[in-house]
Amino acid sequence: MTIRVLLADDQALLRSAFRVLVDSEPDMEVVGEAWDGAEAVRLAKERRADVVLMDIRMPGTDGLAATRLISGDPALAQVRVVILTTFEVDDYVVQSLRAGASGFLGKGSEPEELLSAIRVAAGGEALLSPAATKGLIARFLAQGDGADDGRDPARAERLDALTVREREVLVQVAGGHSNDEIAERLEVSPLTVKTHVNRAMAKLGARDRAQLVVIAYESGLVRPRVD
Predict the structure, then answer these.
(1) What does the alpha-carbon distance between residue 138 and residue 213 come to, in Å, rounded to a whole number?
(2) Residues 196, 205: Cα–Cα separation, whole Å
(3) Cβ burial, residue 178 (10 Å; 0-12/13-18/19+)
């Protein structure tokens, strides 16, 4: 299956470079280019995109607002957003993850990292590599919004719907571990882990594993660590 990629960036030169890279792969193609967030949302619908490479800072509707619009539209439930940012530490990155993005990459990433990110996101996995992603989430949630060190009581209450095993799996997901790694740690099959992950996402209203990570931190289930 060919992965349909939409490019959203206000710099035409960058879009051209990304297009050449993506179109060079046999399993993916660029189906559109957007110069702002509003155009990205429109094209995501029209071109049936699987993955949107989304810049954060764009004129008009920015990448954060566009991500919220995409993640909040049932018609775009299968669209995955990967945030592209120039900055290694950016509060908008965490806001984007909360808004529904599957992860983020720095614009200085190697071509192989970008292509891998597209495949990971298209497969429904969380783009939590490099490990800096988890560090960013932990750092900003540790700072919080000025109340209760960033924990969301509503999120914590929703965890009551999880079984003990689903909580254990959620902790492992928040650590950035794959299903195979979690299976080995908990001494169960990868299929069992996948079932628990899917059930946790359904109960918590998470689009993907990246959202589970954010929920784990916001609820206080996993305590932020800043090394």
Answers:
(1) 10
(2) 14
(3) middle
Q: Say if CB 52 and CB 8 are below 8 A apart.
A: yes
Find the angle CA(122)-CA(85)-CA(37) to the nearest 5 degrees: 70
pTM: 0.72
List pLDDT tens digits, range 159-188.
Answer: 888 999 999 999 988 877 778 889 999 999
Give the 3-state secondary structure of the chain: CCEEEEEECCCHHHHHHHHHHHHCCCCEEEEEEECCHHHHHHHHHHCCCCEEEEECCCCCCCHHHHHHHHHCCHHHCCCEEEEEECCCCCHHHHHHHHHCCCEEEECCCCHHHHHHHHHHHHCCCCECCCCHHHHHHHHHHHHCCCCHHHCCHHHHHHHHHCCHHHHHHHHHHHCCCCHHHHHHHHCCCHHHHHHHHHHHHHHHCCCCHHHHHHHHHHCCCCCCCCC
* Tokens 């004129």, located at residue: 59
**Which residues, listed in sequence order, are joined to residue 30 by a DSSP beta bridge?**
5
Quote the tokens at residue 133.
């992603």
